[in-house]
Write a structure and sequence with these properties.
This protein is mainly alpha-helical and 270 residues long. It has helices at residues 6-30, 40-61, 66-76, 88-112, 114-124, 139-156, 160-177, 185-191, 198-202, 209-212, 222-226, 256-265. It has one domain. It is built from twelve helices and no strands. Helix 3 packs antiparallel against helix 7 (160-177), helix 4 (88-112) packs across helix 5 (114-124) and helix 4 (88-112) runs antiparallel to helix 6. The longest helix has 25 residues, at 6-30. It is globular, with a radius of gyration of 18 Å. It starts with 5 loop residues before the first helix and ends in a 5-residue tail after the last helix.
Length: 270
């Protein structure tokens, strides 16, 4: 079922991304959770430059859309859901849950497998985290993630419309849970029963290994609780906890071009 043209899909994703980015950026100014320790203009330039580069890397590496692949799989009857008699709504809900579990598992693997960590570590070198950290990824990680999602789309038979919703949710929750925003503790406690909140995910960016190897979820918070990777709060508290990686404390070593080269030049220091 291909309800949207490729151009419309791009517009939907860009509109959702841009709108939420502006909302979270404004929220960070109005009610920040932490005082940032590094100059914001420099960090934003580096992070958003990576974002732009990433947006080009995926289409260049894989010159067809995942939604097109999903539509093709549906037409050919490929994938588990396409062999079962289930309603479109059921197929969509199941697809969203499976895709979210896939991202949790992928994230866990990118921490556990050394060669994958060399790429993902670029995300963790940010000395502060805010809305732009949610888009700070090495382009090779983006390409690998795209290939993984393509495999799941074909294997499971993810409907094209469900994949679009998932991508919008994934981008949106990444912006939200990396944001430097203050949320009342009671509201945070309620939200994290279902969703990954900024306070929950900030623990994952701690410089302390035992903390940054926790809270791998991006959207649903269930997986960390279910698989024993959940940590409620950082040991030092959110206001003073140290973020980033221990061997990368110099902002001058974290420029856009150096971030691109980092896995190949300084990966041994991760």
């Amino acid at each position: 079922m291909n309800l949207l043209t490729f151009d419309h899909q791009i517009l939907v994703r860009l509109a959702a991304f841009g709108g939420l980015f502006l909302i979270m950026a404004a929220w960070e100014v109005i009610a920040p959770r932490r005082v940032l320790r590094t100059p914001k203009p420099v960090r934003w330039f580096n992070n958003l430059s990576l974002t732009l580069f990433d947006s080009l890397a995926g289409p260049l590496a894989v010159p067809f859309s995942v939604m097109g692949l999903a539509a093709g799989a549906e037409a050919q009857g490929w994938g588990i859901l396409n062999t079962l008699t289930v309603s479109p709504l059921t197929a969509g809900v199941v697809s969203l849950v499976i895709l979210d579990l896939t991202i949790y598992t992928q994230h866990l693997c990118f921490h556990r497998v050394r060669i994958l960590w060399l790429l993902h570590g670029v995300h963790h070198t940010d000395l502060d985290i805010d809305v732009t950290t949610g888009t700070r990824f090495h382009p090779l990680e983006i390409v690998l993630s795209l290939l993984i999602k393509m495999g799941i789309v074909v294997l499971v038979g993810i409907p094209a419309w469900a994949y679009l919703i998932f991508e919008v949710l994934l981008n949106g929750t990444s912006l939200f849970n990396h944001s430097n925003v203050r949320i009342h503790p009671k509201v945070d406690g309620f939200l994290r029963r279902f969703l990954v909140t900024p306070d929950m995910h900030r623990v994952h960016h701690s410089v302390i290994i035992g903390e940054h190897d926790r809270n791998f979820g991006f959207n649903l918070s269930w997986w960390d609780r279910l698989f024993g990777t959940y940590r409620d709060q950082p040991r030092a508290g959110h206001a003073v906890m140290v973020l980033g990686l221990a061997n990368f404390r110099d902002p001058q070593r974290l420029s856009f071009l150096r971030l691109l080269a980092l896995p190949f030049t300084e990966g041994r220091k991760y």
